[in-house]
Amino acid sequence: MIFVAFSDLFLSGNVHVPIVKTLRLLRRILKSLALSHGEQKPHGCISGQTVLVSKKGYVQLVKQSQE
After folding, report:
1. How many domains does the chain have?
2. What is the pLDDT of residue 59?
3. 21 contacts 57 by C-beta, under 8 angstroms
4. Residue 67: inside a domain
5. CA distances from 29 to 4, 39, 40, 41 (A)
6. CA 31 distance to own-chain centroid
7. Could you say which residues of the chain have pLDDT below 50?
């Protein structure tokens, strides 16, 4: 499954993401965060680059590597 950064959905000039789809994605992001917090898993910084979204709307949180 191919994921893209959440922020890239809105930076592409050719793609318009409808508000309903955006709200669904935000709800999935919040559910992922709640699950992560419930399992006491650290996730680090949350940004448009650390939230990945598939074409089907699946959300994946990734950790940024600390250099």
Report:
1. 1
2. 85
3. yes
4. no
5. 14, 15, 16, 15
6. 11
7. 67
pLDDT at residue 45, rounded to an integer: 82
Residue 50 lies in a domain: yes
Length of the chain: 67
Q: What is the DSSP string of 17-65?
A: --HHHHHHHHHHHHHHHHHHHHTT-------TTTEEEETT--EEE-PPP
Which residues constitute the domain of residue 35?
Answer: 3-61
Write down the pLDDT at residue 65: 56
* CB crowding 13-50: b at 16 or more within 10 Å, else e: eeeeeeeeeeeebeebbeebeeeeeeeeeeeeeeeeeb
Q: Tell how far CA 28 is from the center of its chain.
A: 8
- Number of other residues whose CB lies within 10 A of the CB of residue 53: 20
The whole-chain average pLDDT of the chain stands at 79
